[in-house]
From TrEMBL:
<dbReference type="GO" id="GO:0046872">
    <property type="term" value="F:metal ion binding"/>
</dbReference>
<protein>
    <submittedName>
        <fullName>Radical SAM protein</fullName>
    </submittedName>
</protein>
<dbReference type="InterPro" id="IPR023867">
    <property type="entry name" value="Sulphatase_maturase_rSAM"/>
</dbReference>
<dbReference type="Pfam" id="PF04055">
    <property type="entry name" value="Radical_SAM"/>
</dbReference>
<keyword id="KW-0479">Metal-binding</keyword>
<dbReference type="InterPro" id="IPR007197">
    <property type="entry name" value="rSAM"/>
</dbReference>
<dbReference type="GO" id="GO:0016491">
    <property type="term" value="F:oxidoreductase activity"/>
</dbReference>
<keyword id="KW-0411">Iron-sulfur</keyword>
<feature type="domain" description="Radical SAM core">
    <location>
        <begin position="1"/>
        <end position="203"/>
    </location>
</feature>
<keyword id="KW-0949">S-adenosyl-L-methionine</keyword>
<dbReference type="InterPro" id="IPR058240">
    <property type="entry name" value="rSAM_sf"/>
</dbReference>
<dbReference type="GO" id="GO:0051536">
    <property type="term" value="F:iron-sulfur cluster binding"/>
</dbReference>
<keyword id="KW-0408">Iron</keyword>
<dbReference type="InterPro" id="IPR013785">
    <property type="entry name" value="Aldolase_TIM"/>
</dbReference>
<dbReference type="InterPro" id="IPR023819">
    <property type="entry name" value="Pep-mod_rSAM_AF0577"/>
</dbReference>
<dbReference type="InterPro" id="IPR023885">
    <property type="entry name" value="4Fe4S-binding_SPASM_dom"/>
</dbReference>
Length: 352
């Protein structure tokens, strides 16, 4: 992940907006020749632009697209500044992740008035200019989310190839009542979503629900992702604007996450996730979920386990659907390529 700035043009309530300048400066402060050398050493390199809002520094995005060779380019953006990037540059991305939380009222409540409308404008623009890559709706899930309603709403827009979500848990303040939401809203919503997904698979269409596709891919094809599933520290690193290289883009000042710098290089972590995860029967699918949450445990061990329960429910639902998916592949109703996801580490974290 390449930060182009620590600044953001929004102040979503679960994140708070820009990084403090002393932690993630708002301009790239290192020599870009070092970045070029580092990335071009790796024939398989994926460059994902990140921030803050990466398009606030669209000039550096353009410079990197023009001057650095990488196998894939990805951008995570709130979409508000889509017009800053000329169309030919948009077409160079393999994946564009647009932040949107689902229905209009849910998105605008947490991200700000008019954000939902702007994100749809950006997605429509990508369609209009003939963008052929993967457009992913990247949701942050809070206690206001109805997972069935919000994911199916985004699917119904026919603007996004995939929908992915992250629970706003453990790295933020505790919810009013997480377990109540988990048991009475999230779990039943996941079951409805799975029922929709499998019904459509049997008719030949694999809806782009990223966590379902990725966990099913891990079960059927194997080795699709690692531990942690986002790859932080093991096959993915973050290059901050001050040149520091960290395991995870959220862990910008934690010592355990510092892996090197853009000038001298970095060392990947060896098995960053240990107990209780490596003895957990769900480990092959969950991978410890999120390295940052695993290390920091803001909600303590009991809060960690409360989230595990949500993860296990999701994994059990997907695994129960595997025989029907294999049957659909075997009978030619869908192809393995329809299911396999993600095709490379496109920054979708897999486990919400
Ligand atoms: S479900 Fe919990 S304990 Fe099990 S692997 Fe995931 S994070 Fe670790
Ligand atoms: S899932 Fe967790 S460890 Fe991975 S990138 Fe996000 S915050 Fe970092």
């Amino acid at each position: 992940m390449v930060f182009t700035t620590g600044q953001c043009n929004l102040k979503c309530d679960y994140c708070g907006g820009s990084f403090p300048r002393e932690k993630v400066p708002w301009e790239i402060e290192y020599d870009l020749a070092n970045l070029k050398r580092l990335i071009e050493k790796d024939d398989e390199a994926v460059v994902a632009f990140y921030g803050g809002e990466p398009l606030l520094n669209y000039k550096k995005v353009i410079w990197i697209l023009d001057n650095i060779k990488a196998k894939h380019f990805v951008i995570q953006t709130n979409g508000l500044l889509y017009h800053m990037l000329p169309n030919e540059y948009w077409r160079r991305f393999d994946t564009v992740l647009l932040s949107i939380d689902g229905r209009r009222e849910i998105t605008n409540k947490h991200r700000g008035a008019g954000v939902y409308e702007k994100v749809l404008e950006a997605a429509k623009h990508l369609r209009k200019i003939g963008f052929q890559g993967d457009v992913i709706a990247r949701m942050t899930v809070t206690q206001d989310t109805d997972i069935y309603e919000d994911v199916s709403h985004l699917l119904s827009l026919n603007l996004f190839n995939h929908i992915h979500w992250q629970l706003d848990v453990v790295w933020s303040d505790r919810w009013r009542n997480f377990t109540e939401w988990r048991d009475n809203s999230y779990k039943p919503g996941l079951r409805r979503l799975m029922s929709l997904w499998i019904t459509r698979i049997k008719k030949g269409k694999v809806l782009g629900i990223a966590p379902f596709k990725a966990i099913a891919s891990q079960a059927i094809f194997g080795n699709v992702y690692n531990a942690p599933p986002c790859g932080s520290g093991v096959n993915s690193v973050s290059i901050l604007t001050n040149g520091k290289i960290t395991a995870c883009p959220i862990a910008v000042s934690e010592n355990w996450a510092l892996l090197g710098d853009v000038k001298t290089g970095f060392k990947l972590m060896q098995r960053p996730i240990l107990e209780p995860c490596i003895s957990c029967p769900y480990f092959n699918y969950c991978g410890g979920r999120c390295l940052y949450a695993y290390r920091e445990r803001y909600w303590g061990d009991s809060g960690f386990r409360e989230v595990c329960e949500a993860t296990k429910t999701l994994i059990k639902l997907v695994l129960a659907s595997v025989p029907a998916i294999i049957e659909s592949i075997d009978s030619g109703v869908i192809s393995p390529e329809d299911l396999l996801y993600p095709p490379f580490n496109n920054t979708v974290e897999i486990i919400p």
